[in-house]
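re: the backbone from monday

yeah here it is again, tokenized this time
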């Protein structure tokens, strides 16, 4: 197989560094150039324009610059070529840091202390051991498992929920629809690391939040979502925070991004907002993996981390 040219099509992300690093080994065409170009065999994309990929007659594979691929599946004319997602130690490490940071902040009452500091209140609330708190990870895949193992090492009780059975030492695992309510009932801090698919869209709704364990050492249940915004219903989260169903939330993703300035989530005292920044895709770490994959593919090898099109992730 000949050394293929790359179409780089990124929306909302500056392509400069990606282009520079990919160009070290291959010719790169930057969108909006490249549509219908028969010399292009790979596309490296983030939220590519609909119908762009189907215009490329010799496309052999699509590389997502993120772990999520919902942005690729949003294209109604997606051609039938392999789609490769990011699986990389660097991205996994970033996500683990985010999850552990947010879990510890809720566990150690960061919101209370920040509000006390504003009012100059010197008060020490009771402390409780990590082992009294159950962190439930929705989506026990690459990122979920990595976060779970660090949380275990910190002494938290950890539950995991996935589509199929995913045993993990030290973790109480639950699977499928039948496992969802038992998983939620045993969870104090819910960490969402699911992909967005037709099955998972809107899964974080009021009814689900109601099932979380509230009588716990934290004094309420907590939501942390770093998966995708359309997994959740922002209005249901606000309702749950207002009626005490939820004690606090850390949200990295939102139904609409950037989060509209009018959203009450920005100023809610029980919400910690980050701008879809839990785990950034760093081209310095990810481009070498992509280039290695392309070279191996052209030598007749198999692409790794190819998305299951039926499952949608
Ligand atoms: P994986 O594909 O490795 O894992 C996904 C997990 O979700 C699997 O355990 C899978 O189950 C489970 N799952 C999928 N569908 C369902 C379902 N219908 N019911 C129950 N469980 C389900 O993905 P990653 O860990 O690599 O990434 C997860 C997501 O994190 C990405 O898709 C992306 O949306 C998000 N992300 C967000 C970032 C950010 O900065 N905010 C950065 C990177 C990723 P099973 O094991 O049975 O297949
Ligand atoms: C990803 C993301 O999917 O950054 O990697 O959201």
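seq for it, each position gets an aa:
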């Amino acid at each position: 197989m000949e050394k293929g040219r790359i179409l780089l099509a990124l929306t909302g992300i500056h392509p400069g560094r990606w282009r520079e690093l990919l160009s070290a080994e291959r010719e790169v065409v930057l969108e909006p150039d490249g549509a219908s170009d028969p010399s292009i065999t790979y596309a490296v994309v983030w939220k590519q324009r609909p119908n762009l990929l189907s215009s490329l007659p010799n496309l052999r594979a699509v590389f997502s610059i993120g772990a999520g691929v919902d942005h690729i599946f949003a294209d109604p004319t997606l051609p039938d070529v392999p789609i490769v997602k990011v699986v990389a130690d660097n991205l996994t490490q970033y996500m683990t840091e985010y999850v552990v940071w947010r879990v510890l902040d809720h566990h150690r009452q960061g919101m209370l202390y920040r509000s006390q500091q504003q009012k100059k209140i010197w008060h020490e609330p009771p402390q409780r051991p990590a082992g009294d708190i159950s962190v439930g990870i929705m989506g026990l895949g690459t990122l979920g498992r990595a976060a779970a193992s660090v949380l275990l090492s910190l002494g938290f009780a950890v539950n995991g929920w996935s589509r199929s059975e995913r045993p993990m030492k030290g973790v109480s695992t639950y699977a499928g629809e039948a496992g969802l309510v038992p998983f939620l009932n045993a969870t104090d801090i819910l960490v969402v690391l699911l992909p967005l698919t037709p099955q998972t869209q809107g899964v974080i709704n009021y009814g689900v939040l109601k099932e979380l364990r509230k009588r716990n050492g934290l004094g309420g249940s907590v939501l942390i979502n770093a998966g995708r915004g359309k997994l959740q219903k922002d209005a249901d989260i606000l309702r749950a925070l207002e009626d005490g169903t939820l004690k606090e939330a850390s949200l990295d993703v939102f139904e609409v991004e950037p989060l509209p300035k009018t959203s009450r989530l920005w100023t809610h005292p029980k919400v910690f907002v980050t701008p879809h920044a839990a785990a950034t895709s760093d081209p310095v770490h990810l481009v070498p993996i992509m280039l290695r994959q392309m070279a191996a593919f052209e030598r007749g090898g198999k692409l790794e981390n190819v998305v299951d099109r039926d499952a949608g992730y």
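The pocket of NDP (ligand 1) is lined by residues 66-68, 95, 139-144, 161-164, 166, 193-197, 199-200, 226-228, 252-253, 276, 278-279, 313 (CB under 6 Å). The longest strand covers residues 40-46.
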